[in-house]
Amino acid sequence: MFDNHVHCHEFPRDEITQYQKDWTLVCVSDDLESSKKTVELQGVVKCIGIHPWQVERAEPGDLNTTLRLIEKWEVPCVGEVGLDKKFVPHSYDKQVEYFRAFLKLARELDLVVNVHAPDAWQDALEMLRRADVDRAIIHWFTGPLQLLETIKDYGYYITINPAVAIQRKHQEVAKTADRRIVLLESDGPYEYRGMRLAPPVIKNTVEKLSELWEAPKDYVVEVVETNAKRLWRL
């Protein structure tokens, strides 16, 4: 199965090796240094970028160096990149500058964009569309339900996180979204309300989606895996 958004560089290497036995890991990066760690991983889908939370800490030149790293290593994905008005609104203008640069390169190289956008969902979608990006993941989507139709129309995807077990808004998203745009993620090793998020916890997400969709677990797995293979062109 696919974990479509996980911070592999934060896990011990032997733990990642164990997960690879059962999971296809889409490994996102947070900054230049973690991007360098991500490209060294073997047998994973590599995403390179600078997280909105890290934009204000980035050194002059980090953006261009990260962009060159994407080209040098020919990675299939840019991420974790995006906008955040909820947690770091004070750096929003610089976030827009960085996001625009990553989107331009993603369009030129036909890359997937792994997007973070709390309280900036609409802005992020508009920037993705203006940049003419074809493939994007809106990670851990908890935005307005009416945007789900826009995401589908643009050909993008959302990820459902294990937090769906307890996060009511995320449950509403999971129930409302067109099933053809749903992917799964762990966002590990993030800690959320006492849960240590990691790839194996996605099995609990499957169980919750089975409940929300009123469908067998095998059906849920088939749907999300078909979606992932379509996105990653496998």
CATH superfamily: Metal-dependent hydrolases
Total number of distinct structural domains: 1
The H-and-E topology, N to C, reads as EHEHEHEHEHEHEHEEEHH
Count of separate DSSP helical elements: 9
* Helix content bin: 40-55%
Family: Belongs to the metallo-dependent hydrolases superfamily. TatD-type hydrolase family.
Keywords: Hydrolase, Metal-binding
Organism: Pyrobaculum aerophilum
GO molecular function, one term: hydrolase activity, acting on ester bonds
Helix/strand layout:
Layout: E1 2-6, H1 13-19, E2 24-27, H2 32-39, E3 45-48, H3 62-73, E4 77-82, H4 92-109, E5 112-116, H5 121-130, E6 136-138, H6 147-154, E7 157-160, H7 168-176, E8 182-184, E9 191-192, E10 195-196, H8 202-213, H9 217-231
Parallel strand pairs: 1-2, 2-3, 3-4, 4-5, 5-6, 6-7, 7-8
Antiparallel strand pairs: 9-10
